[in-house]
Amino acid sequence: MNINSLHIGIFGRRNTGKSSLINMLTGQDISIVSNFPGTTTDPVKKSVEIFDIGPAILIDTAGIDDLGEIGNKKIRKSQEVIRKVDCAILLIAGNQFGDYEVQLIEQFKKNEVPYLFAHNKNDIDKIAAITVTAIKQHSNADIIDFSTINPADKDRLITALKRIIPATAFQRSSLIGDLVRPKDVVLLVTPIDSEAPEGRMILPQNQTIRDALDNQCVTVVVRESEISDFLQLGIKPALVITDSSAFGIVAETLPEEIPLTSFSILFARMKGNFTAFLEGTPYISRLKDGDHILLLESCTHQTSCDDIGRVKIPKLLQQFTGKQLHFTVVSGLSELPPNIRNFSLVIQCGGCMVTRKQLLNRLHPFIERGIPVTNYGMVLAYMHGIFRRATKMLEKKPVNLPLFPDN
After folding, report:
1. Using one digit for the tens of pLDDT, what is the confidence trace for 231-259?
2. What stretch of H or E contains 47?
3. What CATH number should be reported for the domain holding residue 308?
4. Angle at 339 between CA 335 and CA 342, to 5 degrees
5. Which of 235, 264, 293 is the last residue of a domain?
6. Count of domains in the chain?
7. Looking at the structure, do residues 115 and 152 belong to the same domain, yes or no?
8. In this predicted model, what pLDDT tens digit does every residue of 354-374 receive, in sequence order?
């Protein structure tokens, strides 16, 4: 899933024309179209360039009125998509509007997803005044009456879409733009271990290098074993960014006055609820025997003995706290465990593979219930005694942290 594209979800009952709408917007036969209800099973994603909007990912979902056990599973998957999209189209046809649509409206509002109504198949049955009145009792969203077989209606729909796209959907936030000035030297420390992909760098490292170059910085990349060699050149970097797993050796080698943070922490600031992360991290010192910790990975990947989320962090947390802890790992954007109140702490990865909207919605249920949340990099900084050093420069305003041992 392209994290730099607008994510548009298409929702509605079976046979309202969701797949036809996908095909209309893409100009291709991407989704299977059938008169038989329930053709769409898992959400279907298609990357497309929409004129006047830009790169987008259209997500075709199963009908919200599907039947039986399989149908309920399809509906749950469709509802999960709501937390992952920037905006949505609620498709209706034949003037059908009722509880199914009202439930979707409530989910859109709960997840702060802007949306519009599109009444399809107006070549057969135009939208009735009574339908418009029923919709307006529950929503102020725009209503478009159209048909997927009318080429001219495509432009009308795109115009309506442009009105609901959130301004933040296309904002390209800079990772370090407010931390550096042009010609500053930025030192990136990138360990090469069993988790490092063969012959290339991981996405956070690539994106940070590009961001430093975009901000006209002199960018130097070294392994942790070459930091001392670089410092002997007499060049003082304005900022050092390391992989979180190397915090220990980098902090020991680097003079205290040089600003230090990590790729993971930078991504936490750009994509997550950074204040919640800052406030949640010190709760590590409150963990008790038997507490359950939830580790959230944004992507699925092959694990190794050096895996930071599944191996290193659990091991270090047990050592640091001296407590017997239980760990649960959820990868990708898979469904969360059923009883999230059982968790004493949630640790999110950097989130380089998901959008800000997806990450915020992922963490919202925990923050809403007062469960502390933190981030891979912040946890490692805290356990290495450099939490304040690694985060202070990133705070937009001072944060009152819990009065626990802040190493």
Report:
1. 999 999 999 999 998 999 999 999 999 99
2. strand 44-50
3. 3.40.50.11410
4. 125
5. 264
6. 3
7. yes
8. 888 888 888 999 999 999 999
Distance from C-alpha of 201 to C-alpha of 85, rounded to nearest angstrom: 28
Please name which of 244, 268, 280, 238 lies closest in space to residue 175, comparing C-alpha atoms.
Answer: 268
Helix (H) or strand (E) holding 316: helix 313-321
Q: Per the structure block, which two tokens stand in for 399?
A: 């944060």
User: pLDDT (tens digit, 9 = 90+) per residue, 297-355?
Assistant: 887 655 555 678 888 999 999 999 999 999 999 987 778 898 999 999 999 998 887 88
Q: Is the pTM of this model over 0.90?
A: no
Query: By the 8 A CB rule, do 229 and 210 touch?
Result: no
Residue 178 resides in a domain: no
Q: Annotate 223-255 with three-state secondary structure.
A: CHHHHHHHHCCCCCCCEEEECHHHHHHHHHHCC
Both structure tokens of 128:
């009735």
Domain-terminating residue out of 234, 264, 294: 264
Amino acid at 92: I
Please name which of 69, 2, 23, 363 lies closest in space to residue 10, comparing C-alpha atoms.
Answer: 23
